[in-house]
UniProtKB/TrEMBL annotation:
Keywords: Hydrolase. InterPro entries: Glycosyl_Hydrolase_73 (IPR051056), MGlyc_endo_b_GlcNAc-like_dom (IPR002901). The lineage of its organism: Bacteria, Bacillati, Bacillota, Clostridia, Peptostreptococcales. This is Endo-beta-N-acetylglucosaminidase. Residues 119-244 form the Mannosyl-glycoprotein endo-beta-N-acetylglucosamidase-like domain. One of its GO terms (molecular function) is amidase activity.
């Protein structure tokens, strides 16, 4: 059987380093080809009332964003009560099943931890006090709060990265290899960053037909979200630390 491999992963979008420079990732490319996953050329904007995304959405260009470095691209956002109501259908799509902590096979499932329990684990870091926003993002967008918290801890160095400190960007969202700090989005508040990334995951990664959909598991998200093969393991480890 002859398999033709196109080493360019078109429109790869995620938080980590540029895919086009990772030519040794043969295994991932082969997996992509064998699964026949086509990346649709669609806009991330919809006719739905967008809560955080705007015309400056990084997915509208051809750059590959990374996390962990951080812009002149100020991105002030406000989450009004009306916008929260408009966003609520996201959570309805994912159902209300609860688990003891988190399920890496389906990160849409809700956690049963409280905001106070999350904050207890964030004490002594710049992330302390954000537990209610991680839980609110879980309710609105259907992304497990522990997974969101773990991603934020990983990508922001527990809230200590320059991007997190100076731009309220806990996920390095919108940062690109050539100018990570300058290109990373700025947010009015840290909670805006949480809502923005939760919506991005919900819309593009955890929705069948989403631009980067590859299943509902943390490993599935890893394939299209980060070029670091150990990213999912790191997120899972941190999430476990939040409940132990």
């Amino acid at each position: 059987m002859n398999i033709k491999i196109d080493t360019q992963f078109h429109n790869f979008q995620g938080p980590s380093s540029n895919y086009y420079n990772a030519m040794d990732r043969f295994e991932d490319i082969l997996k992509y080809k064998m699964n026949g996953l086509d990346i649709p050329q669609i806009e991330t904007q919809t006719n739905e009332n967008p809560v955080i995304f705007g015309s400056n959405d990084y997915s509208s260009n051809n750059q590959s964003p990374i996390f962990e470095n951080d812009s002149l691209n100020t991105y002030n956002t406000e989450l009004s009560t009306n916008n929260l109501a408009a966003a609520s259908p996201y959570a309805n799509v994912f159902g209300n099943s609860h688990i003891s902590s988190f399920d890496t096979n389906d990160i849409r499932k809700k956690s049963n931890v409280t905001a106070a329990q999350i904050d207890e684990k964030l004490q002594g870091t710049p992330l302390n006090g954000l537990g209610s926003y991680f839980k609110r993002a879980e309710e609105i967008y259907g992304v497990n709060a522990l997974i969101l918290t773990a991603i934020a801890k990983l990508e922001s160095g527990n809230g200590n990265s320059a991007i997190a400190r100076n731009k309220n960007n806990l996920f390095g969202f919108g940062a690109y290899d050539r100018s990570p700090y300058e290109s990373a989005r700025s947010y009015a508040t840290k909670q805006d960053s949480i809502y923005d990334v939760a919506k991005h995951l919900s819309t593009n990664y955890l929705r069948a037909g989403g631009m980067y959909f590859n299943g509902y598991s943390l490993d599935g998200v890893n394939v299209r979200y980060s070029t670091n093969k150990n990213w999912a393991n790191s997120v899972s480890r941190i999430a476990n630390e939040l409940v132990n």
